[in-house]
C-alpha cells in the first residue's frame, strides 16, 4: 500500500514511470497541482486537448497505453480542481485519492514489466546497493524497485546516515547518492567517501535532478563513477548496478 502525504509543497514520485505529482499550493477552495512527466508523455488539461486526440487509436503501443492512462489521471486531477473550486471538499479528497491510486498502479505495472524484462544477476552473487535519498517516498519506491530486481538495498536519509552505514563491516557494490540533502549533501558525502582509504574503489553513482557541473561534482576516481538524471530510467540504473557487480573493483 502506498501511503500518501498531501501537505502543500510535498512531492509524490513514481520513479519507474518518471512522473512526479506535487500539491503546490492550497488557497481556500483552490488547489494547484503540478505534474512532471517525461518529454515523451504529454499531460494536458481537459480543455486543451481530448485524450483521443493525443493518443490516436490506430497506433496501439505501450506508449499509447501509458498516454491513455496518464490522460485519465490528468482528467481526474482536473475534476479534483473543479470540485475544490465548488467547495465540495469531501468529493475532491476522494477524487484526488483516485488519481494517486491510478498513478500508483501505473508505477507498479512499470516495475512488474521491468522485472519481467530484466536479466537476472549472476548466480550466487546478489548486488548490494546503498541508496542515499532524503525524500522518503522516492527512497521507498526506488528501494522497492531494486529489491524486486534481486538487489540487496540499504537506505540512508542523508549523507550522515550514509557515512555511518559505510563505517560498518558491510561494503555495498555501489552507492546511489542524491545531491541535494539536509545535514550533509551529496558533494560533501562524496568527498568524505573518496578521502577514506578503506572505501577505495567503491562505486558511487550520482542520482540527481541537477547536472554534475552545477553541483561541482567531478567524474572519475575522485568523483562519481556515473550520473543518472531524474526522472530515472530504472532499467539503465539497474544495468549499471549489475555491471558494477561483475567488474573487478566490485570484489575489493
Helix/strand layout:
Layout: E1 11-14, E2 19-27, E3 30-36, H1 51-54, H2 62-85, H3 89-117, E4 128-132, H4 136-148, E5 152-156, H5 159-166, E6 174-177, H6 186-194, E7 203-208, H7 212-215, E8 226-229, H8 234-246
Parallel strand pairs: 4-5, 4-6, 6-7, 7-8
Antiparallel strand pairs: 1-2, 2-3
From the structure above, extract its key features:
alpha/beta, 3-stranded antiparallel beta sheet, 252 residues, 5-stranded parallel beta sheet, elongated, disordered N terminus, 41% helix
Task: Describe the fold and architecture.
It is elongated and about 60 Å long. It has helices at residues 51-54, 62-85, 89-117, 136-148, 159-166, 186-194, 212-215, 234-246; strands at 11-14, 19-27, 30-36, 128-132, 152-156, 174-177, 203-208, 226-229. The strands form two sheets. Strands 5-4-6-7-8 form a five-stranded parallel sheet. The protein has 252 residues and is an alpha/beta fold. Helix 2 (62-85) runs antiparallel to helix 3 (89-117) and helix 5 (159-166) runs parallel beside helix 6 (186-194). The two termini are 38 Å apart.
